[in-house]
Amino acid sequence: MKLSIKLAYAAPSVGLAGLSLPLLVYLPTFYATQGQVPLATIGLIFLVIRLLDIGWDPVVGAAMDRTRPRFGRFRFWLAVGAPLLSLAVWFLFNPPAGSGAIYLASCLLGVYAAWSICFVAQLGWGGALASSYEGRNALFAWWQGAYLLGSLIIAAIAQLPEFRTDPAGAVGAMGWFIMVAVLIGVAIALAGVPEPVSSPPAKVRFSDYLRLVARPAIARLLAVDLLMGMAVMTGGSLFFFYFGARHGFSRPSAAMLFFVVNLGSLVGAWAWGALGSRLGKQTAACAAFCCYAVMLAVVHFAPIDQMASAVPIVFLFGATVSAGPVLVRSMLADVGDQEELASGVDHKGLIAALFANSNKLGTAIGPALAFLALAASGFAPTAPSQTGRALTGLFAMAIAFPAVLGLLSAWLVRGHSISRQSLADIQLALAQSRLKRAH
């Protein structure tokens, strides 16, 4: 596959990634201070909308499996989702004076619904676009790289001098970046990336959703994605607390280290994709998840109370974080071919929706457990020092818990059975099956 196609396919990820950090960090505080919405109400709104969003993903995936526009089903849905997302982002990031809880809930509902359309369409498109064992690793490595680039740009916007004392200006600038990046990125993808001819439309039922979840190969990868999502987001949600209380870094210094972690992830995306092609996807993923657990221990026990000693360690730690999104997505695309050969139905849209579900559940469950555990241990975020019990609780949730999840994921992913040769056999049989159905 040409590099230009990989770059064009990854382009929408820059804007789509820009939503993650504002939704987690900046928008709740912004609406609490500017919109005067109580924090408890904001937390409830985000929780309820997130749960509704998880139920929306299968609907989106089923719609993609049932439609076959000449334009390409995934290209069509991405073209539909992008302007809807940009419009919803405009309203969410630029609320009028006096906007309250209902306004926030309405905008969030629109943002999450449109984001799901774009994410599921792009993931399904990638599974259909790249068919070779190595090609899928490379394609999803570029996707993850573009995603991390978008996250880094958003983090950089928040650090600009003019926005450090102007949260409303920072939020507005983030909104503009997301809107422009999504529209330009999707336009580049639609102009520069083809979509292979799909199988005939599928009649999707709720039983199909349950059947796919019960497939051992799919269930294993969804479990790995869920566990690694929980691990990474648990550690990420406690990053500033941990480096402040354990290693004595100020918040600005910790923010710089967080930036370095993302730089490491950017490099790791391509490194793990290449290793997946060389060693086998499940072997590379197993190694990556074990390295993730080891690097967590290094982060905790190494003497990194100075920036010079911390930077190389957190960079290497960051390089282990991006293995899951690259390799699990690639393996999921392989399983999609296997499922189509077994059932005679192309369910790539629904499988992409399942992946979106596991991803969202992991990012929701991990931080929720982390903050509940920290509260139970007596951790006080604004206290100048913490009790021994609070520090133990912080270690348990920021280091030990994610490390255990990483090792469990490594054990699970070893059971993935599609090798380079078996994928080639599956695709040959699938091509013959499609030819028979066409005639």
Overview of the molecule:
There is one protein chain. This protein is an all-alpha fold and 439 residues long. The chain is 82% helix and 0% strand. It folds into 2 domains: 190 residues, Growth Hormone, Chain: A (Up-down Bundle); 222 residues, MFS general substrate transporter like domains (Growth Hormone, Chain: A). Helix 2 packs antiparallel against helix 7 and helix 6 runs antiparallel to helix 11. The longest helix has 30 residues. The two termini are 29 Å apart.
What is the CATH third-level topology name of the largest domain?
A: Growth Hormone, Chain: A
Distance between the termini: 29 Å
The helix count comes to 17
Rg for CA atoms: 21 Å
Contiguous uncertain segments of 5+ residues: none
The major beta sheet can be summarized as: none
CATH level-four homologous superfamily name of the largest domain: MFS general substrate transporter like domains
In the CATH hierarchy, the architecture of the largest domain is Up-down Bundle
Summing up helix and strand content along with how strands pair, one would put the structural category as: mainly alpha
* Mean pLDDT across every amino acid position: 86
Tally of DSSP β-strands:
0
Share in β-strands: under 5%
* Total domain modules: 2
Q: Fraction of residues in helices?
A: over 70%
CATH domain class of the largest domain: Mainly Alpha
| Shape designation | globular
Q: Which H/E pattern describes the elements? A: HHHHHHHHHHHHHHHHH
